[in-house]
Amino acid sequence: METINFQQNEFYYLSKLLPKSYKKRIIVLGSGFAGISFVKAFVKNIGSKLDDVELVILTRRVYLTFTPLIYQIATGLLNEHHVLEPIRKRNSDYVIIEAEIEEINLHDKKVITSLGSIEYDYLIIALGSVSNDLGIKGAFNYAIPLKSVQDATKIRNKIIESFEKASILKKDDIKRKSLLTFVIIGGGATGVELAGSIKDYVNLLCKRYYNVNSNEAKVVLLEATDRLIYQASEKASKKCKQILEKSGIEIILNAKVISIEKNKILLSNGSVISSDNIFWTAGIKVNPIIEKIPNEVALKNKGRLVVDRNLKLIGYTDVFAIGDCAYIIDGETGQIVPPMASSAVQEGKYVAKYLANYFIGKQELNPFKFKDYGLMLSLGRFSGLVDFQNKFVISGFLGWVLWRMVHLLKISTIRNKLGIVFDWSMSLLKRRIITRTD
Ligand SMILES: Cc1cc2nc3c(=O)[nH]c(=O)nc-3n(C[C@H](O)[C@H](O)[C@H](O)COP(=O)(O)OP(=O)(O)OC[C@H]3O[C@@H](n4cnc5c(N)ncnc54)[C@H](O)[C@@H]3O)c2cc1C
């Protein structure tokens, strides 16, 4: 009797699904901002020549996460489905395979996945990054990072759980204090937005749903350097601190966390912060799949794949790296292109045009040039901040309106746009999601 090996069977399925044809196969790894902007722009640019090409997306989950809004899931402002954009479309021009990518073999031109391996002619690596615990003991055991929708729901569940527990304890109970202390570690763009929104959420929970005085609930933002949002101008950074402090958030700069224990943060100056709610927004590092590629096979800088001026991997003519996993120097300014959604989208579009031009026999493109549109932040109810290319800063209500308009425009499906407008309207009426999902 033949024994069926599940792995082998799946591999058979994959090779049957995609037998290699005469067509050139382009595999896109990842369905984030970089990968999906590549796919959309490639289909548009190549036109009818698409018939000569087989475009394949390999990704863990068949959707794009609109990360700039996930902190709003953590704070009950948005429903999680409204920030997930499905990539499966009716009559789409590409093949999608949902699988876990395990290894990239640049030598044999194949990708090893949980369903088996698959060969490519051209490869677009857009695998993004992962949260970085910076080697701090206990960081990921006791703090919840914010990188995915799943992380965001964990944070929301934790906040609600803490309120449930605190509300039945006596006011002078020391545990109640820890349950009502919310600490965000990392004062970058994600950290400040999360802190501002948690403050609003906590105020709402106190006033509307639980028998807790808002003065009892404390939101603390810890930043290891001497200023918030290091990538913004000093003016924007100061303004951001002012706005958050005015809303009642305690900001501690130069706060170097040395370890995290259960409900406890230890700082290098010897102080200890007790909290049941520790959230981590202190940075990102390269995807482990990129780490696995030996250094002698692909040049790396800070773990990211170094690319040339056309975003091709150094030493390769058929492999491109875009988004957070690529180390890109802007040809004109000599600056490192920041790992952001806006840069990932520009890089995806550039490579799409470059490769489409090649297939239709058009002229080679000029080197990639990054357009910096500045930084936009939402810092709480009716409060925003726009740092436009380090030239001028818009803050307050106008900054908040601009932030909302720009983010809504960037959402690509009508369903999600309407969903977000609904959720935001409800929050203006002080109604947020207050139910746990775990
Ligand atoms: C909370 C948060 C807020 C942010 N806010 C902003 C903002 O306001 N503005 C801004 O410009 N940037 C923001 N960013 C940064 C932005 O999200 C990233 O720079 C951007 O997502 C990078 O795009 P990418 O395509 O390189 O990676 P991602 O968007 O992360 O996509 C990576 C893709 O690879 C897939 N993948 C990874 N590993 C595997 C594997 N082993 N197998 C299969 N598939 C895999 C993932 O599922 C995903 O589809 C934010 C990031 C976070 C976490």
Structure description:
The chain is of the alpha/beta class. The chain folds into 2 domains: 7-60 and 99-131 and 285-359, 3-Layer(bba) Sandwich (FAD/NAD(P)-binding domain), CATH 3.50.50.60; 139-282 and 374-428, FAD/NAD(P)-binding domain (3-Layer(bba) Sandwich), CATH 3.50.50.100. It contains 12 helices and 26 strands. It has helices at residues 6-17, 33-46, 71-74, 139-142, 149-167, 174-179, 189-209, 234-246, 288-292, 341-359, 397-410, 414-428; strands spanning 24-29, 53-59, 63-65, 84-86, 95-98, 101-105, 110-113, 116-119, 122-125, 129-131, 144-145, 181-185, 218-222, 250-252, 257-261, 264-267, 272-274, 277-280, 284-286, 300-301, 304-306, 319-321, 326-327, 375-378, 384-388, 392-396. It has a 5-stranded parallel sheet with strand order 5-2-1-9-22, with helices on one face. The protein has a 5-stranded parallel sheet with strand order 11-18-12-13-14. A hairpin with a 4-residue loop joins strand 6 (101-105) and strand 7. The longest helix has 21 residues, at 189-209. It is elongated, with a radius of gyration of 23 Å. Flavin-adenine dinucleotide binds next to helix 2 and helix 10.
